[in-house]
Backbone:
């Protein structure tokens, strides 16, 4: 069940089914919903979805409304809007709000499939990176305060002696901490450590 | 008929003859006049009248006529006892009375002018009605006829004989009638109605002062029927006006009632409303006289016309929007199955690959289906692009004004359904960027729906319209009714096209409203719909820039 899930929301039964079948030809599992609220109620799908294909205008909560809800709960899944209407102001609005794409019905299915593929890739990439940063962050969180102080000194380019003086500890202790840091962060060299820490800081900013 | 030659024994040969006179104008039976012929050379009247003379006097008195006989040479005046009696004098008191002094001041001039005319021979008879002062100081109306019965060689009048009749009662009655007529005229004209009185046979037409004022006609200009209708009618109104008159004259309609334009003296046309009725017919039922009113409705007509034009414009805009929305809704409805069609054929094509060579023969047709689905979509899209947003002319608009306009437009409808308005308009007034006509269209649609929704409500029927500041700088208009809420069939998506609860509806009203509002860059939604009523909201952007 690690394959990326795609969710389709459209109130028109035939359209919903046809888009679902189409996306299944890409080999992705697909879940279809007749209304936006049904998707919001499916926590598992929200957790796993790599791409949403949404109709813009639906009874109840519209596609645009769903986009806003997801934004507010921090769910940043790529959204492809499909609409039988789609005038310029509406397209501009959803694109500004971060939509992945907007397709006018009826559309060339190849375009939709390409965009779904891309969306899934983007999403997968995001998730992978997210997972990686989560792992790195976890390792960083495993450092003791003293080890973190030593690591900061290393990244700042200070020598062991200087770090020992800064922290008022022996050089020997610094060396022990230093080895522990390299081991906990799973890095082989000082250069690798520096790059990791800089990347983490950049990413978490 | 009584007739007589002069009696042979009479030394002054007076030969009065009585004969019926032409019926006088007022229909009063004055009956007879007295004509006295007098032989040339006779210049004095003997007081000692003979037997015949006495008989005539009695006959006249029985007829109620006083007699006077005036010798112009001597100035002597004989007045019969009845003459005195009519005025309340004893016979002997009348000798010194002067006719001119007894005349009512208002009648004096005319009576004396007529007398002079008769004396000079300008008119053969003296015929006059005037008031004479009675002994008790009251004035009574008299009708008098007289003739000069003797002239000298130079034609100067020598003797004049006349009769009198008391017509006071008849005259009072006619005065009362006239006063009553005046009262009516006053009442009608006070009401803005001008009067006309048309004698069909002669074509003579009398019009009141107000009537003349409408067409700027000078007070002294005489009129014939044709002078007003048809000659002053606007050419475009002739047919309907003549038809309206004919229908009444022929007895098809109980009254003539018609509106038309009359040309005024300065050449312009004014709208008037005419009512008229035949008041007199002859024995055969042929109309003789028609009386009626005319009212100047020009300004009223113009404003009514303006109102009508506005309504028509609104209706036209509604039709245009209808066409646009129709196409738009149709496009949406068609695009859905076209999308499905395209997608299904695409799925089939992709699954075909899994079959290998076996399925190749159906690849072509499937591809064609997929292509045609897209092509149909293109066509629909083009049609939509063509009709969509036609004539959206946005400008800064005071939204409260649009609301009050709608209240005015819908006043009649609301009253007909006993619906009360409740307005909560934002102060200071809010402005939006919008197309006035289309926004009126939306609000009147919502108001109409609200009124319809309350048509079954027993209790209070309240139609509330509120204007207020909304989120993100938008302006919101809220329309609430106290009806029973949206029907089950439309509750889920009241804006869906082609879904309606109205037996004769096409289900586009709210769909149109939403399209209009979305074209404005706004939103429309249902805020609440319960058994206690429904609230529609719409938001509109503030003025651009």
Residues:
């Amino acid at each position: 069940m690690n394959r990326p899930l795609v969710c389709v929301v459209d109130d028109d039964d035939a359209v919903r089914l046809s888009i679902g079948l189409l996306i299944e030809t890409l080999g992705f599992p697909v879940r279809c919903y007749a209304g936006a609220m049904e998707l919001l109620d499916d926590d598992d799908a929200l957790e796993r979805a790599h791409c949403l294909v949404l109709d813009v205008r639906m009874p109840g909560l519209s596609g645009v409304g769903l986009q806003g809800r997801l934004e507010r709960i921090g769910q940043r899944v790529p959204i492809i809007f499909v609409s039988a209407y789609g005038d310029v102001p509406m397209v501009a609005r959803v694109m500004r709000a971060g939509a992945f794409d907007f397709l006018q019905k009826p559309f060339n299915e190849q375009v939709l499939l390409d965009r779904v593929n891309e969306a899934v890739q983007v999403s997968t990439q995001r998730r992978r990176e997210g997972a990686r940063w989560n792992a790195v962050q976890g390792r960083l969180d495993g450092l003791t305060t003293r080890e973190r102080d030593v690591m900061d000194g290393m990244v700042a380019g200070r020598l062991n002696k200087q770090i020992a003086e800064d922290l008022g500890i022996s050089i020997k202790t610094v060396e022990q901490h230093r080895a522990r840091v390299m081991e906990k962060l799973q890095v082989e060299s000082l250069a690798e450590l520096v790059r990791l820490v800089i990347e983490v800081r950049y990413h978490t900013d | 008929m009584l007739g007589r030659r002069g009696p042979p024994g009479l030394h002054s040969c007076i030969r009065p003859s009585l004969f019926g006179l032409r019926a006088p104008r007022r229909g009063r039976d004055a009956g007879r006049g007295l004509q006295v012929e007098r032989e040339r050379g006779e210049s004095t009247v003997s007081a000692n009248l003979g037997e015949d003379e006495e008989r005539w006097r009695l006959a006249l008195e029985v007829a109620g006529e006083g007699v006077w006989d005036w010798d112009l040479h001597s100035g002597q005046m004989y007045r019969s006892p009845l003459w005195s009696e009519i005025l309340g004098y004893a016979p002997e008191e009348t000798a010194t009375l002067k006719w001119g002094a007894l005349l009512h001041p208002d009648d004096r001039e005319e009576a004396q002018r007529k007398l002079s005319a008769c004396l000079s021979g300008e008119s053969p008879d003296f015929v006059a009605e005037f008031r004479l002062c009675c002994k008790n100081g009251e004035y009574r109306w008299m009708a008098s006829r007289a003739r000069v019965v003797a002239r000298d060689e130079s034609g100067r009048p020598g003797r004049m004989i006349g009769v009198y009749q008391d017509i006071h009662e008849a005259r009072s009655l006619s005065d009362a009638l006239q006063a009553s007529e005046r009262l009516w005229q006053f009442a009608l004209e006070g009401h803005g109605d001008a009067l006309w009185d048309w004698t069909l046979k002669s074509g003579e037409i009398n019009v009141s002062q107000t009537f003349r004022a409408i067409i700027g006609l000078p007070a002294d200009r005489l009129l014939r029927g044709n002078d007003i209708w048809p000659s002053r009618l606007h050419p475009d109104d002739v047919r309907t006006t003549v038809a309206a008159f004919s229908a009444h004259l022929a007895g098809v309609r109980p009254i003539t009632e018609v509106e038309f334009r009359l040309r005024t003296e300065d050449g312009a046309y004014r709208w008037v409303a005419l009512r008229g009725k035949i008041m007199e017919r002859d024995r055969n039922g042929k109309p003789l006289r028609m009386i009626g009113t005319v009212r100047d409705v020009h300004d009223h007509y113009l404003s009514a016309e303006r109102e009508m034009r506005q309504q028509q414009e609104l209706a036209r805009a509604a039709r245009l929007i209808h066409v646009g929305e129709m196409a738009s809704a149709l496009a949406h409805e068609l695009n859905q199955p076209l999308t499905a069609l395209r997608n299904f054929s695409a799925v089939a094509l992709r699954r075909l690959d899994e079959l290998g060579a076996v399925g190749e023969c159906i690849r072509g047709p499937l591809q064609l289906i997929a292509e045609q689905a897209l092509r149909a979509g293109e066509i629909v899209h083009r049609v939509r692009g063509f009709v969509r947003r036609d004539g959206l002319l946005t400008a800064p608009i005071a939204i409260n004004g649009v609301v009050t306009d709608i209240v005015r437009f819908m006043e009649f409808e609301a009253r007909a359904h006993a619906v009360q308005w409740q307005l909560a308009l934002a102060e200071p007034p809010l402005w939006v960027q919008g197309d006035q006509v289309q926004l009126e269209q939306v609000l009147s649609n919502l108001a109409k729906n609200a009124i319809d929704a309350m048509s079954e409500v027993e209790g209070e029927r309240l139609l509330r319209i509120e204007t207020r500041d909304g989120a993100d700088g938008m302006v919101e208009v809220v329309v609430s009714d106290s009806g029973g809420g949206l029907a089950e069939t439309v509750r889920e998506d009241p804006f869906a096209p082609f879904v309606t609860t109205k037996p004769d509806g096409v289900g586009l009203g709210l769909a149109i409203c939403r399209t209009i509002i979305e074209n404005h860059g706004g939103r429309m939604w249902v805020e609440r719909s319960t058994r206690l009523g429904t609230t529609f909201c719409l938001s509109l952007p503030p003025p651009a820039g």
